[in-house]
Amino acid sequence: MTPLRVLFVCTGNTCRSAMAEAIARRIAQERGLTDVEFGSAGTAAWEDAPASDGALLVCLERETDLSSHHARLATPELLAQYDLVLAMGPHHVERLESLGARGKAYLITTYASRGASDRPIGDPFGGELELYRDTYAELDRELRLVLDRIAAERTPGVS
Hints:
The protein is of the alpha/beta class and 159 residues long. The protein has helices at residues 16-31, 53-61, 76-79, 90-101, 108-112, 129-154; strands spanning 4-10, 36-42, 84-87, 105-107.
């Protein structure tokens, strides 16, 4: 089976989407999902910027490695390489659609809940460490639902 390529997108690709990529990898590994690949980008990213200190620290607390993260800008060329694009806020979805991701870009909570929620993931950038912890916990919850859906949709006879 061809791997499903999933891209997480926020604004700067130093907090939310970077954490989402690392968390999703960890959850997929825990579950033995080897046919899903993850990446991240930002709609206004500064190329090669590292993850924010808050994101690095909170991920380190939870044994999730962000040390090698380098921010990338979401471009039409990058988006074309991914099958599913999950964004943190509605303005990200709008921007992604304008860059060519129409039909494969969703708000992460909308995708996770199969349309029952359209709540954005708050941006912890510049906030206290506790805000980063809350964002990590929220992403962990949502990503478990995302991976449940992906696994079900990739298993023949299950939907």
